[in-house]
Amino acid sequence: MELNNGPGNVNENEIITERKKRIFSLKTLVFFILSAFIAGVLIYNLELDKTGEILKKADPSLMAAACLIYFLSNFFKALRFFLLLRQEDMGLVKIYIITSFHNFFNMILPARTGELTFVFYLKKIGGASVSRGLHLLVVTRVFDFITISAVFVCAIILYYGAGISILMLSLGIFFLVMSIIMLFNLKRFMILFRNIFSAMVSAFNLSENTFVKKISLKIDSLAGEFSDFETMRHIPGLAFSSILTWMALYSMFHVAILSLGIEMDFLGSVLGSTGGVLTNVLPINSFGSFGTLEAGWAGGFLLVGMSRQDAIISGFGYHALSFIASGIVALISYAIFKIKKYN
Predict the structure, then answer these.
(1) Cα(289)–Cα(305) distance, rounded to whole angstroms?
(2) Which of 82, 217, 252, 342 could form a disulfide with 8 if both were Cys (CB 3.0 to 4.6 A apart)?
């Protein structure tokens, strides 16, 4: 398969090199130490007897159900990319494989470096440009925030009723409004960034520098992707697939909790798990996100009344299930990848 390596695009080796630089850095080491410390504190606060009882009573059938729901969420994520890439003549099977690799590496690699895996495989398997991949990542992540914020606002109203926390409601509405504004102004933000970069190049007289020229071409290519994107035309598909994705994920969170014999209604699990979701999207995680994800998860569930023991152990339990499920999906996708000879 011939890949698109026109002006402004990046080859696969550059993507790998950039990912390695971000993984093997001082910042990554700091995040690893922080994550290990947080995980240690959480484990220290677990009561071993109660933990043993919870694990003995764990329901394997519900754990399997949680994994199956994860498979479904992965399909809905692939469907979202498929709807955005229809003009690229890329089949759903290819996009599912790309999405599976992306989700798995995003889970195990530190500081969100796994995001670059999507760009890499979209180019390697699908032949799409790197600027196209970066644009899709930004658009889908913004829509993720819109969906999470909307679900959070609805859940908090229904869960608390008259006793609703004005602060939590205000924060949810704020993030929802800001995410919507961001979605409809991505093109303007990108053009503004390009203009600022061009002004800096002119101010420092770097227009003839080879490296700066290369960066300028990449920025121009990415700006073109944002400029050509018809936001309104894609909103129905984005909204539909994003809602399906997050309903599946929130259902998985809930089933994972129930599999450990912990009582929690669906709305409560939506509110509590949002803490883990928001922590996981921040670029502060170390390898596997262990420690930081559990901290956000535990914090969220403590706010909805779950005991400290249950909040911590359910965080580790969900994380282990999602890790196993994503690994299985990635292995199946890799087998299909080899059989179909997409590489």
Answers:
(1) 24
(2) 217
Instruction: Tell me if the pTM is above 0.90.
Output: no
CA 228 – CA 234 distance, rounded (Å): 12
Of 182, 183, 150, 145, nearest to 169 by C-alpha is: 150
Residue 278: both structure tokens together: 């928001």
* pLDDT per residue as tens digits for the range 272-296: 998 888 877 666 666 666 777 888 8
Give how far the C-alpha of residue 12 lies from the chain's centroid of Cα atoms, to the nearest Å. 22
Task: Check residue 343 and report its DSSP letter.
Answer: -
Tell me the HSE value of 56 on the side-chain side, using a 13 A CA sphere: 6
The answer to whether 69 and 255 have CB atoms below 8 angstroms apart is: yes
Dihedral of the alpha carbons of 16, 144, 215, 84, in degrees to the nearest 10: 90
Enter the DSSP assignment of 300: H
pLDDT tens for residues 249-271?
A: 999 999 999 999 999 999 999 99
Classify residue 205 by burial, with Cβ atoms within 10 Å: 0-12, 13-18, 19+. exposed
- Residues written for the chain: 343
CB 321 within 8 A of CB 66: yes
Q: Would you kindly state where each structural domain of the chain is located, as residue ranges?
A: 59-245+326-340
CA distance 11 to 21: 16
Look up residue 282 and give its DSSP letter.
S
Place of tokens 């400029």: 227
Nearest to 70 by CA among 341, 331, 327, 343: 327
